[in-house]
Write a structure and sequence with these properties.
Largest sheet: 2 strands, antiparallel
Number of helices: 14
InterPro entries: SET_dom_sf, SET_domain_protein
Strand order of the largest sheet: 1-2
């Protein structure tokens, strides 16, 4: 839609700031002031108004993620022929009930509600009345109070280089916290991306591939298949050695094929992926873990750290790795079949109880 029809509908949008402008600007400027969504286009601050996005309010923990597409994103090499075409795209990032308001975050403020409200008032000029500020949950505020401290451990270069296990365990804690309070926006996607970068730094292709896959899947959910970050992570997945800083350290050396060790070990996936329980300055290679095959969920999880010669290729032979992966795949099938059988038993139990009359 464009031209006169867009202009006509634009003028009917909510206008709470009519009195702040003179003449024609009191309509045009008032609508923009009331309905715009803050943006950064080509590294320039902007105010975007769409006929639908005009009704999209702010929430500190949103159920919608907004992304912006530039002419380069849309038209590629033909972008110069469409210099003024920009797109605002909105995807839900969590389940939304019928009648629930759609809200996106103007910015991500990872601090408790009182500090968030003050900062939003100072920067955007409004008092946030989202449910997380109007009736703050102590659990959410408690998590956001320590968010910054945990995040610094995940992104600090010195920690990544010298205490990689501490960095990944902090990422695990951050991910668990986000899941518990319902944060599934860009913060969730960039966490997985940062984990991939940590592992790539230490030449750990297996973990980096796994984390990059999660980051790509999350970006695709919140940006769509042709989103800028979605396409960037797809390129990284296709060439894991293209991640920033890849190979600066050889401590975690592994192959892409070893990522399957994580896929076929659902019981111990988190422990292996984030090196849970390791000393903070350690880097446990995927090949160092032992006792995985046939190990139950209640058994002790462990690893054996070997001396490694980083100048040599120490990856298992293709035959050894294929044999191990075959055993793990068989174990995963048994595990999945066991879970399916339990689910069927539960379902039968529910059907037996359904419709029974109460005895008097």
């Amino acid at each position: 839609m464009g031209g006169n029809e867009f202009a006509r509908q634009f003028m009917t949008l909510p206008n709470k700031h009519r009195d702040a402008y003179q003449g024609f600007k009191n309509v045009f400027g008032g609508v923009i002031e009331t309905c715009h969504f803050p943006a950064n286009l080509d590294d320039n601050p902007a105010a975007v108004v769409g006929l639908d996005s005009a009704y999209l309010n702010h929430s500190c923990i949103p159920n919608v993620v907004v992304s912006f597409l530039t002419p380069e994103d849309i038209y590629g090499e033909h972008a110069k022929q469409h210099p003024d075409e920009y797109w605002l795209r909105a995807y839900t990032c969590v389940g939304v009930a019928e009648g629930e308001e759609l809200a996106a975050a103007y910015s991500h403020l990872n601090v408790p509600s009182a500090i968030r409200k003050a900062r939003l008032k100072g920067f955007y000029g409004f008092s946030c009345c989202c449910k997380h500020c109007e009736a703050p949950d102590p659990e959410v505020d408690g998590f956001l109070d320590v968010y910054g401290k945990i995040e610094r451990t995940v992104i600090q270069p010195n920690v990544i280089d010298n205490e990689p296990a501490a960095a990944l365990e902090a990422a695990y804690d951050l991910g668990i916290g986000m899941t518990s309070v319902g944060i599934f926006d860009y913060r969730y996607a960039t966490l997985w991306e940062q984990c991939a970068v940590i592992c790539a730094w230490h030449s750990d292709e297996g973990r980096a591939m796994f984390f990059a896959g999660r980051a790509h899947a999350t970006y695709e959910l919140i940006e769509g298949p042709d989103g800028r970050n979605t396409r960037r992570l797809w390129i990284w997945r296709s060439n894991i050695k293209g991640l920033p800083g890849y190979g600066a350290s050889k401590r975690g050396k592994s192959s892409e094929m070893e990522a399957k060790l994580l896929i076929f070990n659902p019981r111990q996936q988190a422990q292996m992926l984030f090196m849970l329980g390791a000393n903070k300055n350690e880097y446990i290679r995927l090949s160092d873990y032992f006792g995985l095959i046939g190990q139950g969920e209640d058994q002790t999880f462990g690893w054996s750290v070997r001396e490694h010669d980083d100048d040599k290729e120490e990856e298992q032979t293709a035959e050894e790795l294929e044999a191990l992966l075959k055993d793990l795949e068989d174990e995963k099938k048994e595990y999945d079949q066991g879970r399916l059988a339990k689910d069927k038993e539960k379902s039968k139990g529910k059907k037996k109880n359904k419709g029974k009359k109460a005895k008097h």
